[in-house]
Each structure stands twice: as structure tokens, then as C-alpha cells.
Amino acid sequence: MDSTASTPEQATANTLLFRAGGILYGCDISVIQEIIPLRPATRLPGAPAYARGLINVRGVIVTVLDLGVKLDPSRAPAAKGSILLVRYRERFVGVAVDAVVDVRRLEIDHGNTAGDASQDRGIIAGTVAVDESALPVLDLNVLIRQVLLS
Description:
This protein has 150 residues and is mostly beta strands. The chain has one domain (10-149): CATH 2.40.50.180. It is 10% helix and 50% strand. It has 2 helices and 10 strands. The chain has helices spanning 67-71, 140-149, and strands spanning 10-20, 23-28, 32-37, 51-57, 60-66, 82-88, 91-97, 99-109, 124-130, 133-138. The strands form 2 sheets. It has a 5-stranded mixed beta barrel with strand order 1-2-10-9-8. The protein has a 5-stranded mixed β-sheet with strand order 3-6-7-5-4. It starts with 9 loop residues before the first strand and ends with a helix.
């Protein structure tokens, strides 16, 4: 441990566990407005591969991002799974994942993001210990902001 590093900040939160690209992740469930089944989306011409397209959710047009493809561009888009609806500023954005696994109240270590390839993109908020493994906790608002600004 670095001698200049402070004690990692920890917080307990209800954490949604889900799979994307074959990897188990977590996120703070409070950012999720709703979870719906994966459905076909209308592709946007010229959009990056991770932008699945647009869907209509009860009269609201929602942009859907494929998290597995965003994190690993060589991966094929998810064929089945769920869409996590996240309220980002004044609109909803969908994040497609392979599977929703569980919701657990877990200690999130906000100081432990070392060694994760996604850290460079700033979307890792910390880690949680699940079944003796350290899983990355994603900040979906940061992910969405990066995608919408790119």
C-alpha cells in the first residue's frame, strides 16, 4: 500500500449485481429507475457499435447503450438480457446488460479501483466483495456522460 494513500472510503449501499460481457459488475441501485427486458432497438445511422439504438418506453424515446460492447468493442451485442433505465439529467438512458443477478446490501470500497482496465475511463466507482471476489462497481452516470459527450 502506498504510504501517502489514505484509508479507503467505504460506504454501504444497495448494490445491483449484473453481468455484462461475461463479467460480474455492481452499481448503486438508487440510480436505476426501472429494469425492463431487452428488446429490439432502432439503430441510428453512423452511431458507434455500443449504441444499440432507440426504444419506446411508454411513449418516452430512450437511447440504449450496450455495456458489454462499450467495455469490450470486439464483443457481439447482447442477444438477450435486460435494460437498466437510468435517469440522466432530464432524460432516460438505457444500459443493456446480459443478466441481472441480484440486489445486495454491500460495503463499497471507493478507494480500491487499482488494476481495473476501465479505471482509465473513470467509470469505476470502487469495488465490492462478493463470494470472496472483488467486483468492480460502475458509476453509470459517468459512463452515460462520457458516451453522450463523445
